[in-house]
Design brief:
By secondary structure, the protein is of the alpha+beta class. It has eight helices and nine strands. It folds into two domains: 72 residues, Orthogonal Bundle (Arc Repressor Mutant, subunit A); 188 residues, Beta-Lactamase (2-Layer Sandwich).
Length: 275
């Protein structure tokens, strides 16, 4: 009678199959030599895994016979994925830790059309009641701290497209100046004319060269001015943003070359200095 594989071997085989499937998906198709190189899996194992994945209907060989590609069946693997649940579970410990360090509430903000929306927050855990009805709250891109952080660090093509949609032509030059100031400063700053009269600073959460989301910190300027907030809270805010960036990189299987080793909101000369 055939001896069943040990538990450790079975788990490793499943992990390798999933890693190989992710590699094929990320590369939009690959040859066997490319898969061996990119996955680090030995060629004989790659061939066996490809045969198994093809038999299961998750990959197929191109008509030319050289490249392997995923099939529509892979979409079933993500059909039960709930992004909001993942974001809430992933960001919760990061936000709670941040709250303990700075004492002011923070939100995870994501782009939605020409506005930026609250998608997760530690406000329920914060003793300072700032806009308690924050669920689904939206902020303008060109005036909010989060919107400015998004625009300042998103790719140029995306920035131009968004500005054309949400900023009148006559105001575009002033907005571009503010975005340049945002990059020099290292964080987005809320326009003081926005209502209600609260303060906010924000930093980007990067996914490669793109902005996955933005992490803000909301405060009361009459209690603590923005200069003191930046000096005291910017470093922990950036640390939290990098932690979120790492989580997004794992979710999207971003390669090592795009891993968030540096925060783009920190100027090169500031990387080892206090904010």
């Amino acid at each position: 009678m055939e001896t069943p594989p040990r538990r450790e071997e079975s788990v490793r085989a499943v992990r390798r199959a999933l890693d190989l499937l992710a590699t094929i998906n990320a590369s939009r198709g690959a040859t066997v030599p490319e898969l061996v190189r990119d996955s680090g899996i030995p060629r004989p194992t790659v061939l066996r895994l490809l045969a198994t994945l093809a038999e299961a209907g998750y990959v197929l060989r191109s008509p030319q016979g050289r490249r392997w590609e995923v099939t529509p069946r892979v979409a079933r693997l993500a059909s039960g994925f709930n992004f909001d649940t993942w974001l809430a579970a992933t960001s919760a410990p990061i936000l709670v830790d941040l709250l303990g360090k700075v004492g002011w509430p923070s939100d995870v903000m994501m782009l939605g059309g020409t506005e930026i929306h609250v998608r997760a927050s530690n406000r329920p855990q914060c003793g300072v009641a700032i806009e308690a009805d924050f669920h689904g709250m939206r902020s303008p891109l060109a005036q909010s701290a989060s919107g400015r952080a998004y625009l300042a660090w998103c790719p140029e093509v995306e920035r131009r497209r968004l500005l054309a949609l949400c900023v009148p032509r006559a105001q575009e030059r002033a907005v571009l100046r503010e975005l340049e100031a945002t990059r020099r400063r290292g964080y987005g700053l809320r326009d003081a004319s926005l209502k209600p009269p609260v303060g906010a600073i924000a930093v980007p959460v990067m996914l490669g060269a793109s902005v996955a989301c933005v992490l803000d910190l909301v405060f009361l300027p009459r209690v603590e001015p923005v200069e003191r907030i930046a000096a005291r809270c910017l470093a922990p805010l950036r640390e939290a943003a990098l932690a979120l960036s790492g989580a997004f990189a794992k979710l999207h299987a971003v390669g090592p070359d795009a891993h968030p080793t540096d925060d783009p909101s920190i100027a090169p000369g500031q990387r080892h200095a206090d904010p």
